[in-house]
Amino acid sequence: MSDSSWTRIPSTPPSEEPAATALVGPPPVTAVPGDGLVRSLEPLLRSWLPRQRWFAGKGLAISGFRLAAATELVPPGGRLGPVGLLHLLVDVEQPGRPADCYQLLLGAHPLLPSALIRSALGPAAGGPYDGLTLYDAPHDPRLAALLLERLTFPGRTGPLRFTTEPDAVFPPGLPPRVSTAEQSNTSLVYGDTFILKLFRRVSPGTNPDLELSLALARAGSRRVAEPVAWFESLPAAAGAEPVTLGVLQRYLPGSADGWALALASVADDGDFRTEAAALGRATAEVHASLAAALPVHTLDGPALERVAAGMARRLDETAAEVPAVRPYAGALRSAFDDLAHLGAAATRSGRPVTAQRIHGDLHLGQTLRGPDGEWVLIDFEGEPARPLAERRRPAPPVQDVAGMLRSFDYAAHHSGNGPWAERHRAAYCAGYAAVSGTDPREQPVLIRAFETDKAVYEARYEARHRPAWLPIPLSALARLASA
Fold this sequence. Notes:
This protein has about 475 residues and is α+β, with helices and mostly antiparallel strands. The protein has 12 helices and 19 strands. Helix 5 crosses helix 10.
């Protein structure tokens, strides 16, 4: 995303789409060159970005920045007095990898209140914000409330387009707070009514968290927190896709995180099997709803060979990077060889392998059990480290099942209770089969290949970010290598 633009919001929005007049700034002013803005922000971003959990390029030097888009939602001296709100899309260049585009929402203040000091980038030197201190705007309740206000009005603000569902209702005066949950984005909770996920690392195309949640909600699924509004950046180039920037969804107060529930059960050597089976049923219901709402494909022999080749490549890359994986690599490759040969065999048997849209990164931390005991799946974004096009690609539903099985394994081994995992993996599969009619354990080639691929991904992630957790995927790789 390299076509830069700088937008100061005029007093009258484009006539073809309505906008929130309460948020419209002063009359048009002279445009400020984007390169001047970047030069003034560069030293601040070099220091601040690598410290953010959602920054993907940790450990690599930043070689440069390109401004993709800049929009003043509120200019300093506007409706908030000296405080301004700046929306940025910035391409970050690093050696050896394609540039990543990040969404930044920056507040600007001449004298930052003490409550916001921890969110500060620092004072701008030169450029249009010279002398103002810039900070991460979601942490400012005034700016967070203003962002929700803007989401309630469909229409354009410069290159940003805001959309609401027709039947959405927005109660006034919802107090905002930043979610403390560990994640690769930033979430704002408004009262007990809404949660806004702001995607930080963005790409052209509809984010699957919006796409799939919206498809499920419109199909009447009760297994999803339905979106009520979202916003995106419209490209300057003809034919390019919009970039999904944020999704406002129904908040689920009183819900319990599946990961926390599982850890509590493991610690007590408790029986979580009823919940695991219910979660399996919920997963199968989501798969059925997605298959009804979106296209389903058949994977022939060549298609499965390509899937298996990708898995084998990831294994080779991980073994090269993580020495502890190397003793298992040869045996693990057989799981992918079996998958490559499955297509022809499935066609001969009259039971072809199907692919559809799936969650893509399903684990216990992506589930919530409501006060009524019903399970909801959240965060349909897929694995953020993978390209957006890959995350939107149809895949066998067993990929989601494999991810959940790995999560039960993580919960158990994290607390040293291996037998707990086997009991609850079985309960989950039984619950899934009760709705889908097919037990994932009756697809041994598929389940082994996808579980192996997931454990390989985990090994690489843990080696990079949490070396103390590396034994968890390594124990799974040892088991899968002897399967």
